[in-house]
Amino acid sequence: MSRSPADSLPFVATRRGFLAAAAAGTMLSLGGCSGGVSGRPTVTLYQSKPEAIPYFRELVAAFNAEGTGLRAVHDTASNLSGGFARSAPPDLGCLNYNFEMARFQERGALSDLSDLPEAAAVAPEIQGLVDQYPGYPGRTSVIPYSLMAASVLYNRELFDRCGVEVPRTWTELLEACGTFQDAGVTPLISTYTDAWTVSQGLADYSLGGGLNIADFFAQLRAQGDDLGPTAPVSFSKDFHGPLSKMLELAAYSNRNAASLGYGDGNLAFARGEGAMYLHGPWALGEIAKTNAGLDIGTFPLPMTEDADDLRVRVNIDLALWIPEAARNPDGARELAAFLLDPAIQDTYNAENLGFGVRAGAPPVTDERLVEMQSYVDRGAFYQGASTAIPRTIPFENYMQGLVLGADLEGVLSTLDDDWARLARRS
C-alpha cells in the first residue's frame, strides 16, 4: 500500500523550510479555504486520476503550507471540455496525456512552456511520445510528469513449477501456453466484461508488439480520409495480422473470461488461478489486497520471431499543461515548478509505480517492475493503439466484440470507415 505524501515527503520540510505536519493543518477543499488565507490569489490544479487524488490532495496542502502568497485548489470533478468551451479552464492540468488531451494542444488552447527549465529536462525519448500526437507549431504545450509502463504480469512461482522460461518470441509464447495447459494451469487470465481491459491489454499488446504504432498513425493521419484498398496503410491491412494472433492467444484464456470483469481478474490472478495477466502496474495494488506475497514479474508480449522486436506498452500517465485562457498563468507556473521539483516528482513515481521522465531520473526499484526498466531506458516501447484513437470511435467495444466472436474483417472495415468519417469532418 502506498504511503501518503505526509509520510514520504520529509524532504519538503527540510528543503523548503516548513514542517510536513503543517500541511495537514492547511488542507483545503475545492470550494473553500481557512480564514487565514482568504486574501491569497487562487491557482486551480485539475487532477482527476482516481487513485492519485489523495496523494495530490496532500501535495496541494504542502504547497499551501509554504506561504508563497498563493492558495492552490485541487479540482477533481470539473468537466474539462466544458471549462475550455466557457473560456474557464483550470490554471494547471495534471492528467493522462492521450489523443483526447492532444485535441486541446493541436488547437492552440495550451500555452507554450518551452521556456521552463523543467521542459528541457525531459528525456528525448519521452518527449518523442508527446510528439507522436498532433501539436501546435512552435510550442511545447505539455511537460510529461510520470510514465506508466505495462507488459505481461506473470506468476513467477507457476513459471518455475512448470519449468517455463519467460518467452521472447511468438513461438516460445505459444509453447509456454501449451506447457501450462498440459500441467493443468490456465495460461492467461482474461476479463471480457470490461471492454477497456481487452483494449489496453490483449489488443494494445498484440498491436504494439507486431507493428510500429507511431509510424502507422503518422501515416494514417497524413492520408486524411483515404482508407481505400490502395492506401499505404489502413486498419484492415495493418491490424489484421496482429489481431489474428491476438485471437489465437486469447484462446488460451480462462473459460469464464466472457463473464469476468476487472476486479474478478485481479482476484483470480492473486489466487494463482492463471500464469499470465495482461495488465499494467495499476492492477498490482488490487492484486496485493488479496495476496501481498505473490511473486510477480513482467515481460513484453512477444509477437514476432525476433527477440529484438520486444517492446513494452507505455503511456504518459500524467503530464502538466497550462491553458492559454488560464486566469492565473503565473501562479500555475509556480505550482508546476513545485510539482516538478525532482524530489517531489521522483517520490511520486516511486510511490505510485511510475517511471521517471527526466533524463537521469532514478530507475524503478519495485521488484515487480524492474524487468521493464531496460526497455524504458532504451526507448523500446510504444504507446497503445487505443490511446491514439478518438473516443468517438468505440475501439474498446470493437476489441471486446472480437474476443466474443465478432468477424475480424468486418470490425476492421468498420474502423476504416469510422476513421475516414472523422477525417472528412476535420
UniProtKB/TrEMBL annotation:
Pfam families reported in the protein's UniProt record: SBP_bac_1 (PF01547)
Superkingdom of source: Bacteria
Signal sequence segment: none
Gene3D superfamilies listed in its UniProt record: Periplasmic binding protein-like II
InterPro entries found in the cross-reference section: Bact_solute-bd_prot1 (IPR050490), SBP (IPR006059)
Family annotation (PANTHER family): ARABINOSE-BINDING PROTEIN-RELATED (PTHR43649), DIACETYLCHITOBIOSE BINDING PROTEIN DASA (PTHR43649:SF12)
Name of the protein in question: Extracellular solute-binding protein
